[in-house]
């Protein structure tokens, strides 16, 4: 049996999903589109195992965004693999009126339905008295009061799923067929639809429903014209009729005193957090806290992971006989993997903070604070969410831009989101900052490295703002942008949810990135170990000749030989080939190799560096990549390679360059054309080159 | 002498004041606002302005909604007279 959770945003639907399914959940995709599909299994009191699907939050079945459209698609298409046998509508008991609009729409689809009234604990506190039996009787469905957050009555809800009727028994809330009688009956007949409301929804939405054939869609269009159907007045009439029904229901079943928002705890918090001065002060303070935390809190676990990999390397080398296999395992795979996995604590902290911002309701306030500024540069207050999400990863954030209704605002948001420094740049920044910025305190409080990191994030954000402003001037549209956003009640973060999000994100990072990095490390190691045979032979002969063996001791010989071999290996040749182009930016051929491999994904940089330096100095197995890089010297001048100028130029390059295949792919999917991803690739890489050039030449 | 109540744009209210929704001047926008609970006859309260002067926060049907001033101006209200 398939059960779908449907509800408004901010109703605790995901919390309920988590308590029903626990860790038995997986995130997939709805076929053909990139909306996250969260499914899980749940065991019922009678022993049956059911599949639970968490559908995206929406306010009505008239979708305003692509994410919301999936709800309509799944619920109206009985052939959709996710089409449920039972729907649980999750409604916020403290905000029943608006939440029940969606319920009455869903009920009219005539799929068996249960109404779960969530947050009943908060409703009790606000002295909202709900007559559950009355409500159940009026609606003709089971109504279950729960508190997902406190795990109250979850068993009762599970029992309700067992008891749920197999056929829809709910009462009609409004007389749907009277809204467009002729049209509804014709659509029902011609498209073979059973339910009046499904037919009406098809009339309104057929252009957006992928499962209808072109013929069916055109036919509905012609039926609409024949019946002179006017969608907007029809929808207005429907919405007013539904709210009439809801008002009458609430009059009979609910007692509550009128709420004065400004007197509620949320209203009081808003007086500070959206205050003219304190609003922005607290916003900046929260951002600063996040960056300080990423450095300070992650230091200890990162040290542990570094030590663990050093230990693994040491133990491993004793077990595996020295030779090609050991080199591949330790110089190739382990070095590459260790270089990246060490950043798990920082990524977990960042995702944790973003989950907390979403969970507490503060994210909506950031949107509220920032809309005017964002609009000035061609964005939308709602662009803030993808952009803050961009701190973690551009890929889901670009998908999150679907919530922006205006096409132009959405395209610009998609185009600039990858400029926000994502978690994949974090390893690059932290590694380079730790090389050139001293670990000192400014005024005894601000960590200099933390400030440098925040500076890098500001540079990325500034770049995004400038580009957005330019695009606003270039892209023309007639469409009007609008902004209607719920400011949810402030709530304590649900630590279990935050923990689950962190766990999910880190798992995805380790699995997906881990695969890329292992593959890249192996390829790199092979290319760095082997070279054109005639060149390699010459080098070997050279170091075996009497002239060398007499002049140097064995250790010196080995170092000289392996570094010359690396320079003449396949990657060396490749790196040297692009060196003239990147020399003005202060990069040598080794960095050049990292730039090339980074086009798969930015975090590969650290792994690449680790692999290259391990191959170059095979006898030095224990020192970390950080030490190896800080000891790196120019082979001609003997000057350190990672100077302030080179490190910052490199960081700026990583801040701006489009070095992520997944982002290119997701932009293609979201914009449905190659035009936008190609423009993005070109402008970002060009901008990165020029900015790095400027930084290096100024700091040199 | 009757008591006159003037219809005005929502944005003409002062922050902190409430009105009863009477009408909308933009059909497209009105559908979206109605879905969110802004219905004719409902009481709407102008809660506050964002620090930079736009958007605004209003409360309706027991919850808070943020809309831009230009959108709020399409909502026609009658001010709820203060209680004596």
From TrEMBL, chain A:
Keywords: Cell membrane, GTP-binding, Ion transport, Iron, Iron transport, Membrane, Nucleotide-binding, Transmembrane, Transmembrane helix, Transport. Gene3D superfamilies: P-loop containing nucleotide triphosphate hydrolases. The chain crosses the membrane at residues 277-298, 333-357, 411-438, 450-471, 509-528, 593-616, 636-657, 678-699. Residues 1-167 form the FeoB-type G domain. It is found in: Cell inner membrane; Cell membrane. It is a multi-pass membrane protein. Pfam families: FeoB_C, FeoB_N, Gate. Belongs to the TRAFAC class TrmE-Era-EngA-EngB-Septin-like GTPase superfamily. FeoB GTPase (TC 9.A.8) family. PANTHER family: FE(2+) TRANSPORTER FEOB, FERROUS IRON TRANSPORT PROTEIN B. Probable transporter of a GTP-driven Fe(2+) uptake system. This is Ferrous iron transport protein B. It comes from Olivibacter ginsenosidimutans. The gene is feoB.
From TrEMBL, chain B:
It comes from the Bacteria. It holds the Pfam family FeoA. This is Ferrous iron transport protein A. Gene3D superfamilies: 2.30.30.90. Coiled coil: none annotated. InterPro entries: Fe-transptr_FeoA-like, FeoA, FeoA_core_dom, Transcriptional_repressor_C. It comes from Olivibacter ginsenosidimutans. Residues 8-79 form the Ferrous iron transporter FeoA-like domain. Keywords: Iron.
